[in-house]
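Why do we care about 3D structure at all? Because function follows from shape, and shape follows, mostly, from sequence. That is the central idea of this module. The next example makes it concrete: a single protein chain, its amino acid sequence, and then its structure expressed as tokens.
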Amino acid sequence: MLELAILGFLYDAPLHGYELRKRITALTGHVRPVPESTLYPAIKRLEKAGLIARETQPGSGAAPRHVLSLTPEGRQELRKRLSEPAQGDITDQNRWFTLLAFLRHLDDAAAQAEVLKRRLAFLEEPASFFYDESGSPLRAEEFDDPFRRGMLTIARATSRAELAWLRTTLTSLDGTAR
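And the structure:
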């Protein structure tokens, strides 16, 4: 998720590490804060792999700034990760949102649609947070516990909204993919 976010933000424009960290934090929010001890090793890995380049520029004060930019190989790698996401990128809500934030960088509408179809298939599978003794999923209405009932009610509403958006977007993409 972190490497995808780095590549995605650098696809738009070169950034220095501090600005990149601010943007990633804004994307992931309080759910997954990005400490420097995680960000900078990821930047180093991507730089060592030839996916990003570092250029030193004079800073506004005395210290120089290191500006990061995406290499042509980095652009290619981002498009590959977007078109061939891991299953966890489809099923995990936070990883899915990171993928979705940059899916526009995948220029091919048919490839975008394939990614959305994978998410749609995942959401259409019957699922629940809680099951009865026989292994059948429990519905929100079956709980006396208002908190578990609330959890299931919110999850169901969120899934319905996302399913509607996915179907509408897929219809739109099908028109542009031809």
